[in-house]
Amino acid sequence: MIIQTRAYARAAILGNPSDGYFGKTISLIVKNFGAQIQLYQTPELEIAPQQQDCHQYKNIHDLCEQISLTGYHGGIPLVKAAIKKFCEFCQQQGITLPNKNFTVRYSSSIPRQVGLAGSSAIIISTLRALSEFYEVQIPQVYFPSLAMSAEVDELGINAGLQDRVIQVYEGLVYMDFNKELIQQQGHGHYEPLDPAFLPNLFIAYKTELSKVSGKVLNDVRTRYDQGDKFVIDTLANIANLADLGKEALQQKDYKTLHALMNENFDLRCKIMNISDSNMELINTARACGASATFTGSGGSIIGQYYGDKMLNNLIVELKKLNARVIKPTVV
Q1: What is the 3-class SS of 34-90, one letter each residue?
Q2: Using only C-alpha atoms, what is the Rg of the chain?
Q3: Angle ∠(296,238,114) on CA atoms, nearest 5
Q4: Vertex 209: Cα angle to 324 and 284 (nearest 5)
Q5: Number of Cβ atoms within 10 Å of the Cβ of 28
């Protein structure tokens, strides 16, 4: 029997990037893109390499391009980290795994390095496949923390819980990462919201943008850890937008939501350097009358639009920047 599992891309609406700093966020799943795992029993344990894991290139320029698109390591380290954390989880829970091996294959349609959470999707999909293969239940509320530990503890990637929470819960979720709450119970407060609350949304991303996701926020982390009051206060203001946004969504007050999404990005600009290419995406979308903020750590944006005419205008204008526009599928 072949086990197949999936985890989807995600986009933050409000509160990002406060999730890594005990803040609050609202995120939605983006089912247009996903990572898939195939796992089946075999005599030996094998992780099947994919194209991005190969070490043969046409020439030096091909090597550089592949590194820009997929980083230095491909997806195999993510799968390995997920397997290790799953094994450790079972040991901690006193679960004895049966003596059987497997081959695991991964694939992903999530655009790389544009802030749509492709790495965490591979990890979560792997954990789901392992859970099914070994018939082990991972409580939903602890699942995001286990997935995050694979990246943070094993691979040294700077990450917050938000991506993993929405990829585990799916739909539309409000999240409160209160420090005392997390320290007391090992997870935050995760509240699913009705996706019917959502207005018309678009996502746009430039396929040629390339950066290693997770490294972008390092300066903010350092300043936060050093007690930089301006950074701490700004992140608190960003987190507060999630509370205001939750109320606006429930009341379908899209005018307020529009302003909050723009404010989220504008506050972010005060503590982070934004590349010219990313600013170009934001400014072009706003010039069309839409709101615009990052979906994640940069590289793609999400915003609210009004009617097909504005959507078509967004598609035309953003195409001039070599950016693709999609309508996110949540349900």
Answers
A1: EEEEEEEEECCCEEECCHHHCCCCCCHHHHHHHHHHHCCCCCHHHHHHHHHHHHHHH
A2: 20
A3: 10
A4: 50
A5: 27
Q: What per-residue confidence (pLDDT) applies to 288?
A: 98
- In our burial notation (b when 16+ CB lie closer than 10 A, e otherwise), range 252-270 reads ebbeebbebbbbbbebbee
Alpha carbon distances (Å) from 206 to 149, 279, 281, 324, 329: 29, 12, 8, 6, 19
Determine whether 163 is an active site residue: yes
Q: Which one from 163, 194, 225, 233 is the annotated catalytic residue? A: 163
65-98, pLDDT tens digit by residue?
Answer: 777 666 666 789 999 999 999 999 999 999 999 9
Segments in 253-306 forming alpha helices (H): 254-269, 276-287
Q: CA 17, CA 149: separation in Å to the nearest integer?
A: 18
| Token digits of residue 285 | 């979308």
Kindly report whether the peptide bond that precedes residue 77 is cis, defined as omega within 30 degrees of 0. no
Residue range 288-316: mean pLDDT, rounded:
96
* Domains in the chain with CATH codes: 3-193 (3.30.230.10), 199-326 (3.30.70.890)
Q: What pairs with residue 193 in β-bridges?
A: 172
- Locate 69 and state its tokens: 């698109």
